[in-house]
Amino acid sequence: MTTWLNMSLQDGASPIMEQLIFFHDHTLMIMLMIITTVMYMMTALLWNKHTSRFMLEGQLIETTWTIAPAIILVFIAMPSLRLLYLMDEIHNPTMTLKAVGHQWYWSYEYSDFTKLEFDSYMIPQEENQASTFRLLDTDNRIVLPMNSPIRLVVTAADVLHSWTIPSLGVKTDATPGRLNQTSFSINHPGILYGQCSEICGANHSFMPITIESVSANHFINWVSSLSE
């Protein structure tokens, strides 16, 4: 999760988020090169006292500064389009999780198992412990196996919500009467935090999302314990 004074993106917990971080750095480097070049040219013009009549009109330089931005945009657009297609693809999921947004909590259903569903509320401030994060921890965490493609189906029961986990690169709108789906895979064990990212009412900031990523054996044992 994000740490104090962290100005960059969260560490990626999924292959898609790692690719998003790479694309962010790639685009940032191109922007840095453009800013450096423009600043150098502006500084040179300010300090240069010479003028040239050949610079008053130049077809070659006008052609160059028209074609160069187009080439730069291609270098940005190609990895961007690739990422868009990767994020939209649903890769043969091993399991399906359904998230339903309410005012102001989340309900979860494990569609592949019988009657495995629960509500997830934020832990009240007076019940927080030293090991929990204020406004981020929930009473019932989503337990998911790592290194497994997971399909997420999102909807809402009342108003617009948005199911968001920044470290997974997942942000899916929860719309009443509509099912939106996405997929992700968690590549390491741990606890991941997120929040509703749609202004859904007075308690919008008090419906966090907590995922506990575990091994496949631990997940099977967790499912078995709930089924008993």
UniProtKB/TrEMBL annotation:
<keyword id="KW-0813">Transport</keyword>
<keyword id="KW-1278">Translocase</keyword>
<keyword id="KW-0186">Copper</keyword>
<comment type="similarity">
    <text>Belongs to the cytochrome c oxidase subunit 2 family.</text>
</comment>
<keyword id="KW-0679">Respiratory chain</keyword>
<dbReference type="GO" id="GO:0042773">
    <property type="term" value="P:ATP synthesis coupled electron transport"/>
</dbReference>
<dbReference type="InterPro" id="IPR034210">
    <property type="entry name" value="CcO_II_C"/>
</dbReference>
<keyword id="KW-0812">Transmembrane</keyword>
<feature type="transmembrane region" description="Helical">
    <location>
        <begin position="27"/>
        <end position="47"/>
    </location>
</feature>
<keyword id="KW-0479">Metal-binding</keyword>
<dbReference type="GO" id="GO:0016491">
    <property type="term" value="F:oxidoreductase activity"/>
</dbReference>
<feature type="transmembrane region" description="Helical">
    <location>
        <begin position="67"/>
        <end position="85"/>
    </location>
</feature>
<dbReference type="GO" id="GO:0005743">
    <property type="term" value="C:mitochondrial inner membrane"/>
</dbReference>
<dbReference type="InterPro" id="IPR011759">
    <property type="entry name" value="Cyt_c_oxidase_su2_TM_dom"/>
</dbReference>
<dbReference type="InterPro" id="IPR001505">
    <property type="entry name" value="Copper_CuA"/>
</dbReference>
<dbReference type="Pfam" id="PF00116">
    <property type="entry name" value="COX2"/>
</dbReference>
<keyword id="KW-0460">Magnesium</keyword>
<keyword id="KW-1133">Transmembrane helix</keyword>
<comment type="subunit">
    <text>Component of the cytochrome c oxidase (complex IV, CIV), a multisubunit enzyme composed of a catalytic core of 3 subunits and several supernumerary subunits. The complex exists as a monomer or a dimer and forms supercomplexes (SCs) in the inner mitochondrial membrane with ubiquinol-cytochrome c oxidoreductase (cytochrome b-c1 complex, complex III, CIII).</text>
</comment>
<keyword id="KW-0999">Mitochondrion inner membrane</keyword>
<dbReference type="InterPro" id="IPR002429">
    <property type="entry name" value="CcO_II-like_C"/>
</dbReference>
<dbReference type="GO" id="GO:0004129">
    <property type="term" value="F:cytochrome-c oxidase activity"/>
</dbReference>
<dbReference type="InterPro" id="IPR008972">
    <property type="entry name" value="Cupredoxin"/>
</dbReference>
<comment type="function">
    <text>Component of the cytochrome c oxidase, the last enzyme in the mitochondrial electron transport chain which drives oxidative phosphorylation. The respiratory chain contains 3 multisubunit complexes succinate dehydrogenase (complex II, CII), ubiquinol-cytochrome c oxidoreductase (cytochrome b-c1 complex, complex III, CIII) and cytochrome c oxidase (complex IV, CIV), that cooperate to transfer electrons derived from NADH and succinate to molecular oxygen, creating an electrochemical gradient over the inner membrane that drives transmembrane transport and the ATP synthase.</text>
</comment>
<dbReference type="InterPro" id="IPR045187">
    <property type="entry name" value="CcO_II"/>
</dbReference>
<feature type="domain" description="Cytochrome oxidase subunit II transmembrane region profile">
    <location>
        <begin position="1"/>
        <end position="91"/>
    </location>
</feature>
<protein>
    <recommendedName>
        <fullName>Cytochrome c oxidase subunit 2</fullName>
    </recommendedName>
</protein>
<dbReference type="InterPro" id="IPR014222">
    <property type="entry name" value="Cyt_c_oxidase_su2"/>
</dbReference>
<feature type="domain" description="Cytochrome oxidase subunit II copper A binding">
    <location>
        <begin position="92"/>
        <end position="225"/>
    </location>
</feature>
<keyword id="KW-0472">Membrane</keyword>
<dbReference type="GO" id="GO:0005507">
    <property type="term" value="F:copper ion binding"/>
</dbReference>
<keyword id="KW-0249">Electron transport</keyword>
<dbReference type="Pfam" id="PF02790">
    <property type="entry name" value="COX2_TM"/>
</dbReference>
<dbReference type="InterPro" id="IPR036257">
    <property type="entry name" value="Cyt_c_oxidase_su2_TM_sf"/>
</dbReference>
<keyword id="KW-0496">Mitochondrion</keyword>
